[in-house]
Amino acid sequence: MIERLLSPLLSDAIAHSPAVALFGPRQVGKTTLALAVGQRYQALYLDLESEQDLAKLAQPALYLADHQDKLIILDEVHRAPGLFPVLRGLIDQARRTGKKAGQYLLLGSASLDLLKQSGETLAGRIAYLELSPFNILETKRIPADDLWVRGGFPESLLAPTAALSLRWRQDFIRTYLERDIPQFGPRIAAETLRRFWGMLAHHQGGVLNTAQFARNLGVDVKTAGSYLALLVDLMLVRRLLPWHANLGKRLVKSPKVYVRDSGLVHALLSIADKETLLAHPVVGQSWECFVIENLLACAADKAQAYFYRTSGGAEIDLLLSWPDGRLWAIEIKRSLSPKVERGFHAACADLAPVKKFVVYPGVERYRLAADIEAVSLYDLANELFFA
Q: Which residue windows are coiled coil (predicted)?
């Protein structure tokens, strides 16, 4: 089994908080990770998509009280929102008897839904962790281009052939559209949402223009915005916000949007393998968003992520803002001989970042200028993880 970077963080959260919410897209490995960590606690596992396990919670207070000596894993907990007040009561009762941590591990596939339900009732009692698809540090024994082409979902990345990997991703998309997404919001025609998802893939890494998406779909702007919000909530799409400091510059104020898993991008665009990808117009943006998503997964919540762009052409692909105010500027190039553009120099002159990197597909780390380093994705991800 591939070791997940989140494993020690999850163990630490369980050790210090009475409830922990682990959320991430379906099929990303939440249950596998939860069960692996739960073995240390002889955890009790309940899948709330199972009628048998759901029946055990017909009287949740009684059932859960009988197992307060164990860590209880509740999978797809958003299916039983009525549980949260019960959990609050049991946690408070256990606190009065001296038990302060390691009671409940909640797994869910929709971040906003789970955060809202749990936040309203378990404030001060719950910790939150997000599990992303496999990243470059977790799959160091697998070629980086395989991770890029297939994406990081375990079943896709580890499929025995490229054809089976693509088929898994196509089935994954179909299942989300036809079965999973209707659980989380108003009913949306699967074909309409499939078209919207495909538009996002074609627009990978572009600045958001909701009005254009709405016109292409034949819906109003509010409806198109709700489609985007749903895919963001399901952790399938990311909105990368623009840097917002007032520098007296005309800044781009709309976020960039991209499908978070590169393998899903390629499946949405019917790109079967690396050769097809390299000849496709999306190749540059696919690589850029793949790099950004891996870096953010490895940085976790240590730094806030933005991009920077002005109307005058100054631009930074990824800007990391650390809690102490430091900025790291990261440019992304799909070239073995990367060159820094004038727009990056201009942006750095505006913002004065303390570190400047150019991520490229090579392995050697070297200086492009006195204060700019060319670095591999693996090396920078490793630096961020241990920062």
A: none
